[in-house]
Amino acid sequence: MAKGIFITFEGPEGAGKTTVIKEVYNRLQQQGKYSVLTREPGGIRIAEKIRTIILDNDHEEMDGRTEALLYAAARRQHLTEKVVPALEDGAIVLCDRFVDSSLAYQGYARGLGIDEVLSINEFAIDGLMPDHTIYFDISPEAGLARIAASGEREQNRLDNETLQFHKDVAEGYRLVQKMFPKRIQPIDAGGSVEEVTETVWKTVASFIS
Ligand SMILES: Nc1ncnc2c1ncn2[C@@H]1O[C@H](COP(=O)(O)OP(=O)(O)OP(=O)(O)O)[C@@H](O)[C@H]1O
Ligand SMILES: Cc1cn([C@H]2C[C@H](O)[C@@H](COP(=O)(O)O)O2)c(=O)[nH]c1=O
């Protein structure tokens, strides 16, 4: 049985999750808290390989159900190899995206059905849902504008979806929040990096105190 705390970070493209989660992880390290920073899809060798297959711009023919199953497969391996052992060791596990991404992106935006995608993920996660989820609340337009402004990142197959797809992702997340109101805590992600980091830090601190 897990002894640690499993915290996931969710939101649309460019919401600032990766930027802020790194800072939160650094602060936990400075405080001497045993913490693990990881991401989905990825975090371990096999899941990073699956990530490359899913996000490759050249794989435009990928079927929606194949996509959902690949995310679930990467998740299963990541959980068994990294997340569960860390939780059993008492770590605070910070994970950049998890099952709610599948529900919003594949379940709602791809039109596979939130319940259907939850059902294949139930097999993958075998009962392990996050203790807490922080949702970075920002419009898809603002998130995509941040990515465009930075010019640092190569656009992947999901980034390159239509604006309507990203609006559907946001609507999907809204429905997922209604399904899990106690677990998912929205924060305003529209401020500066410093402002959002402070909000997230305070929220994480409230989970671990
Ligand atoms: N609060 C912020 N204000 C302005 N720019 C930001 C803010 N947070 C992050 N950025 C910038 O926006 C871009 C996207 O940020 P980041 O990669 O952290 O987002 P993300 O939520 O992880 O996105 P994705 O899920 O698409 O990978 C980066 O260039 C980052 O420097
Ligand atoms: C876990 C997960 C992710 N996605 C999408 C969301 C993003 O477009 C990419 C991951 O890229 P990031 O830069 O690391 O955020 O994958 C998804 O559609 N379904 C999922 O389950």
TrEMBL record:
Top-rank taxon of the source lineage equals: Bacteria
* InterPro entries in UniProt: P-loop_NTPase, Thymidylate_kin-like_dom, Thymidylate_kin_CS, Thymidylate_kinase
Q: Which SUPFAM superfamilies match?
A: P-loop containing nucleoside triphosphate hydrolases
Enzyme Commission number: 2.7.4.9
UniProt cross-references to PROSITE patterns, sorted A to Z: THYMIDYLATE_KINASE
* Catalytic reaction equation(s): dTMP + ATP = dTDP + ADP
Q: Identify one Pfam family in the record.
A: Thymidylate_kin
The residues the record assigns to binding ATP are 11-18
Q: Which GO terms describe its molecular function?
A: dTMP kinase activity
EC class (word) = transferase
List each copy of the Thymidylate kinase-like domain by range.
9-199
Give the UniProt keywords, A-Z: ATP-binding, Kinase, Nucleotide biosynthesis, Nucleotide-binding, Transferase
Alphabetical list of NCBIfam families matching this protein: DTMP_kinase
**HAMAP family found in the cross-reference section:** Thymidylate_kinase
Q: Any idea what job this protein has?
A: Phosphorylation of dTMP to form dTDP in both de novo and salvage pathways of dTTP synthesis.
UniProt record similarity statement: Belongs to the thymidylate kinase family.
What is the designated name of this protein? Answer: Thymidylate kinase
Q: What is the native source organism of this protein?
A: Sporosarcina jeotgali
